[in-house]
Amino acid sequence: MEKKIVIILCVLDVILLGFSVFLYVGEDRTPPVIAFSGDAPVYREGMDEEDLLEGVAAMDDRDGDVTDSLLIEKISGTGEGTVIVTYVARDEANNVGKISRILEARGGADREVE
């Protein structure tokens, strides 16, 4: 009797393990890819976010175009006439893609701006 219970529990463990592997493999874990088209804009302090997002697109392998989810995460001044703009995009599975771009800065971009 005890042997049958052990065998049944082992079979159930194997079934549950197989189901867990199936769910893990089918899960979307790939973040969106952010791409730039056209020339990089020149950064000016107080510039609208829409201007920085112009020519930037985000594509996901499962969800397709997720450009609407694009945000500017951070703008960091380098003190050398440039800023680093960090872009992020999110897909339906909450995977986040991130990329940074160095832009020429004019007009006091020597400090971090958020």
SSE blueprint and pairings:
Elements: H1 2-26, E1 33-36, E2 43-44, H2 49-53, E3 56-60, E4 64-65, E5 71-77, E6 82-90, E7 96-106
Parallel strand pairs: 2-7
Antiparallel strand pairs: 1-3, 3-4, 5-6, 6-7
Structure characterization notes:
- The protein has 114 residues and is an alpha+beta fold.
- The protein has a domain at 29-106: Immunoglobulins (Immunoglobulin-like, Sandwich).
- It is built from two helices and seven strands.
- The protein has helices at residues 2-26, 49-53; strands at 33-36, 43-44, 56-60, 64-65, 71-77, 82-90, 96-106.
- The strands form two sheets. The chain has a four-stranded mixed β-sheet with strand order 2-7-6-5. A three-stranded antiparallel β-sheet has the order 1-3-4, with no helix packed on it.
- The longest helix is centred in the N-terminal third of the chain and has 25 residues, at 2-26.
- It is rod-shaped and about 80 Å long.
- Residues 108-114 have low confidence and may be disordered.
Strand numbers in spatial order across the main sheet: 2-7-6-5
Q: How many helices in DSSP terms?
A: 2
| Mean of all residue-level pLDDT scores | 89
Q: How large is the share of residues in beta strands?
A: 35-45%
Shape descriptor reads rod-shaped
Total strands: the figure is: 7
| Gross CATH architecture of the domain at 29-106 | Sandwich
- Mind telling me the CATH class of the domain at 29-106? Mainly Beta
Distance between the termini: 68 Å
Category by helix and strand content = alpha+beta
Order of helical and strand elements: HEEHEEEEE
